[in-house]
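Re: Re: ligand-bound prediction request (bumping)

Still looking for help on this. To restate: I need the protein modeled with adenosine-5'-diphosphate bound, output as structure tokens. Inputs repeated here so nobody has to scroll up.
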Amino acid sequence: MYELKDRDKIIVFTGPDGSGRKSVAEAVGQTFGMEKVISFVTRPPRPGEVNGQDYHFITHEAYREMEQNSEFLESVEISGNFYGIRGLDIEENLYQNGCVYLIMNHEGANILKKIYGDKVIRLFLYADRRTVEERERKLGLAEEVIAAHLGHYDVEMGYRGSCEHAFENYDLGQTTYEITNTLEIYFQRDLIDKD
Ligand SMILES: Nc1nc2c(ncn2[C@@H]2O[C@H](COP(=O)(O)OP(=O)(O)O)[C@@H](O)[C@H]2O)c(=O)[nH]1
Ligand SMILES: Nc1ncnc2c1ncn2[C@@H]1O[C@H](COP(=O)(O)OP(=O)(O)O)[C@@H](O)[C@H]1O
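Reply:
Sorry for the wait, this slipped through. Here it is.
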């Protein structure tokens, strides 16, 4: 097992669906050369989603087997589908890069915080309900998926106060800029500590 270093960082993008976590995370990830830890999921891919890029799409049987082998650090059921993060994927990524990012709901963010403590920085993104609904409709998501997401909206919004930082996302460039500045402070602090 890889022993985590003090300065290893786990960046968790959380907040309601449609708040822009994926878009912002990709941009910020590129800026800092951070890799995404990809979840395993039992839901079928949506049009345009790529296996191994958006998710590892696996069958219920394969998921159950991984679960029985204790491969998941956290595993949750959302709208009838299972989502899990493999512990080894986080550790291998940290070993190579010293930082990783993930996109998850409040349950996953909470579990990671409990396990990894100060190494976890939770970035909460949000926009008002109508905006996220419009974005998801524009994205072409099925009505039942949008309805399920909106059904989780209030619970996800309630997690804001638990996160280390929160960002309203209406202007993608601005949000990305603010998050980059926030993370730079963490990364610079580590450089200074190292000296
Ligand atoms: N706790 C947890 N949440 C996850 C994981 N992977 C994805 N999620 C979040 O769970 C929700 C899944 O909803 P889904 O309809 O599949 O949305 P999408 O995959 O973001 O388009 C999203 O908010 C994801 O960000 C995971 O491994 N653990
Ligand atoms: N600030 C923004 N302004 C307008 N559209 C946005 C903004 N941020 C994200 N989007 C769009 O909203 C949709 C949902 O964003 P996404 O990053 O997939 O959200 P999440 O991962 O939180 O579900 C995408 O089509 C994305 O391009």
